[in-house]
């Protein structure tokens, strides 16, 4: 049941899930219905071109996808010899999928003998563990017992699906977005900071969905459920594809940024330093206004 639901939710289609699992669409539908009956809640809503996830369905999919990916990665590690020149990086799922992983092919061209393992987690990993070489974290750069080096800043700006732009485009009045369906990542403070920087006094934000990870907020925006705060370098693919559009030219620079973080008590291996130096050289130009 879980496998059928995860595949259908990932593809946003029960028929594509059936093709992936080599079963009939009816079999997938029955498994998902059985799971909904077991949990006593609705997980999907059928639409003309596929399915949409309910709030409960989105939460379940996030947990299943993360769990299955960890199982897959563990099985791969068990089936393959541990490379002698392995570098393990821990970072947020959003940065891994949207910025780091697409660039690793360029690293392999320079260092083909280094095997980079990317471990994603929303929680902060213990960098004193020998299994982790370094982390890329998002924050103010002041973590306790951690040496941090700025990798890149990321300005924020409102983004939404094209069909929402005509309804909520703020023009010269950013305060008009106070009446829009806002999508929050972890905290409502990100939107508060944007409004304040735009000169809008904010005492209380309207309701809106709150998700625990940046990629989830962006997917909600792509699906047309509201307006999210995009970040430089992390929504380039959606903007290029036209599934997201910038709703305002006004950008803010958050207090948080992306940092390369290490345990100061450990001397990094030569190959870990090669990856760090490659990241330093790849550091994107810091955006202007």
Short description, anyone?
The N and C termini lie far apart (about 50 Å).
Name a few traits of the molecule.
289 residues; alpha/beta; Arc Repressor Mutant, subunit A; D-Maltodextrin-Binding Protein, domain 2; 3 domains; five-stranded mixed beta sheet; three-stranded antiparallel beta sheet; 12 strands; 40% helix
Explain this structure to me?
With 289 residues, the chain is of the alpha/beta class. It folds into 3 domains: 2-75, Orthogonal Bundle (Arc Repressor Mutant, subunit A); 81-154 and 256-282, 3-Layer(aba) Sandwich (D-Maltodextrin-Binding Protein, domain 2); 156-246, Periplasmic binding protein-like II (D-Maltodextrin-Binding Protein, domain 2, 3-Layer(aba) Sandwich), CATH 3.40.190.10. The protein has helices at residues 2-11, 14-21, 25-39, 55-79, 93-100, 104-110, 162-168, 189-197, 214-222, 236-241, 270-282, and strands at 44-47, 50-53, 86-91, 115-120, 134-139, 147-152, 156-160, 184-185, 210-211, 228-231, 245-246, 257-262. A 5-stranded mixed β-sheet has the order 4-3-5-12-6. A 3-stranded antiparallel β-sheet has the order 10-7-11, sandwiched between helices. Strands 1-2 form a two-stranded antiparallel sheet. β8 (184-185), α8 (189-197) and β9 form a beta-alpha-beta unit. The chain is globular, with a radius of gyration of 21 Å. It starts with a helix and ends in a 7-residue tail after the last helix. The model has no long low-confidence stretch (mean pLDDT 88).
């Amino acid at each position: 049941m879980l496998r059928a639901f995860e595949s259908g939710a990932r593809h946003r289609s029960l028929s594509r899930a059936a093709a992936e699992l080599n079963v009939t669409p009816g079999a997938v539908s029955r498994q998902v219905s059985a799971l909904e009956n077991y949990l006593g809640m609705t997980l999907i809503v059928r639409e003309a071109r596929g399915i949409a996830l309910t709030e409960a369905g989105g939460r379940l999919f996030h947990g299943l996808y993360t769990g299955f990916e960890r199982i897959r990665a563990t099985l791969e590690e068990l089936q393959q010899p541990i490379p002698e020149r392995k570098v393990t990086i821990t970072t947020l799922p959003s940065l891994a999928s949207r910025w780091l992983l697409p660039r690793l092919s360029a690293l392999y061209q320079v260092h083909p003998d280094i095997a980079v393992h990317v471990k994603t987690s929303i929680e902060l990993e213990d960098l004193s563990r020998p299994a982790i070489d370094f982390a890329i974290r998002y924050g103010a750069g002041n973590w306790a017992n951690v040496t941090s080096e700025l990798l890149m800043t990321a300005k924020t700006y409102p983004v939404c699906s094209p069909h929402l732009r005509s309804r909520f485009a703020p023009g010269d009045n950013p305060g008009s977005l106070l009446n829009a369906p806002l999508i929050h990542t972890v905290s409502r403070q990100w939107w508060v900071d944007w409004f304040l920087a735009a000169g809008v006094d904010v005492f209380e934000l309207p309701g809106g969905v709150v998700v625990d990870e940046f990629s989830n907020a962006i997917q909600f925006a792509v699906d047309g459920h509201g307006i999210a705060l995009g970040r430089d370098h992390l929504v380039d693919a959606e903007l290029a594809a036209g599934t997201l559009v910038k709703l305002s030219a006004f950008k803010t620079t958050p207090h948080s940024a992306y940092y390369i973080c290490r345990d100061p008590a450990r001397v990094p291996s030569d190959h870990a330093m090669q990856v760090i130096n490659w990241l330093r050289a790849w550091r994107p130009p810091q955006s202007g206004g």
